Amino acid sequence: MRHVTKKPIKQERWQTKISGGNFVDKLYAYRNLHAHALFSSLGRLVASRFSSAMTIVVLAIAISLASGFYILVANLQQLAGNLEASNQISLFIKDEISEVRANKFADSIRKNPDIQAVKLITKEQALAEFQLYSGFGDAVKALEKNPLPVVIQVLPKNSLENEQALAVLLDDFERAAEVDFAQMDMQWVKRVQSIMEVARRGVILLSLLLGTGVLFITANTIRLELYKRRDEVVIAKLVGATNGFIHRPFLYSGFWIGFFSGVTAWFIVTTIMLILKQPVETLSRLYDDGFHIVFLGFTETLALLFISSVLGVVGSWIVLHFQLRQLKPE
Fold this sequence. Notes:
The protein has 330 residues and is of the alpha+beta class. 68% of the residues lie in helices and 7% in strands. It has ten helices and four strands, in the order ααβαβααβαβαααα. Strands 2-3-1-4 form a four-stranded antiparallel sheet. It starts with 22 loop residues before the first helix and ends with a helix.
C-alpha cells in the first residue's frame, strides 16, 4: 500500500506577529469601538434629557450671539456696498471742452481696470435735472446760456477698502487736461472704513470670548459626567484600559453637545433673521434701495457646525487630560 504524504493546508490569512489578527480585523475592531462610543454617548445624552437640553440651550445662546454678530456685519457690508454707489467721483469738465471730446475722455476712463462704472451727464441733462429738482425751473428758463458744465461720474471699484488708491485716482483725474476740478468726499470714506473695521474686530473679539465660554461650559459638563462615572473609570483602569479607551466616550459626548448646540444656534439666528426680514425690506423699499437681508449660507452653516463640534471636543479633552491623572486605582 502506497504511503501518501499529506501536505499542510495553506492558511487563508497571514497572522501578524502582534496578537489579535491582521490589519483588516484591527481596522474593523477600531471602527466598531468608535461606533459604539459614538452612539452610546448619544444614548447617555438622550437618557438625561433635561440636563443635556439645559447645557445645549446655554451653549446655543452663546454660539448664536457670535454668529448673529457675524451675520449682522455681513449685512452691514452689503449695506456699505449699496452706499458705495453714492461714493462716486464727480469730474467737472472745462467749459471749452466739447461733448465729443468729453465722451472720448469718458471712454478712456472706462478702460481703467480700477473703475467700475462711468456715466457722462451732458449740459442739457444737467439743466433738466436742475429744473426738475431745484424748484427754480422758471428762473433757469430766463437764462440765455446754460451755465452748467458736462459732468462725468466715476464709480471706483472697492472704493470702501483702499483709501490710498482712491486718493491717487482722484489726483490723476484732477491733473487731466479736460477736468476743471474733481470732487469726492474722502472724509465719508474714512468714516465708513472705520465703522466696518470696528465691526469686524468686534465680531472677532466677541467670537473668541464666547468660544472660550463654550469651552469652559463643555469642560464643566464633561467633568460632572466624569464624576458620575468615576467608579466605572477606576474599574476600567484596574483591568488595564488605556487612556484613549477611557477618553473616547467622553470626547464623543463633547462632540454631540457641540454639534446639537451649533444646530440650535443656527435655528435661533435664522428665526431672528426671518422675524426681521419683512420690516427691514419694507424700510428699504421706502428709501428706494435694493437691500435684502443676508442669511447664513451653506458654507457658513457647515463652518458653524464644525466649529461648535470642535469646541465641544476640545473642551472635553482639556478636562479629561487633567482629571484622569487624579483618578488612580487605590
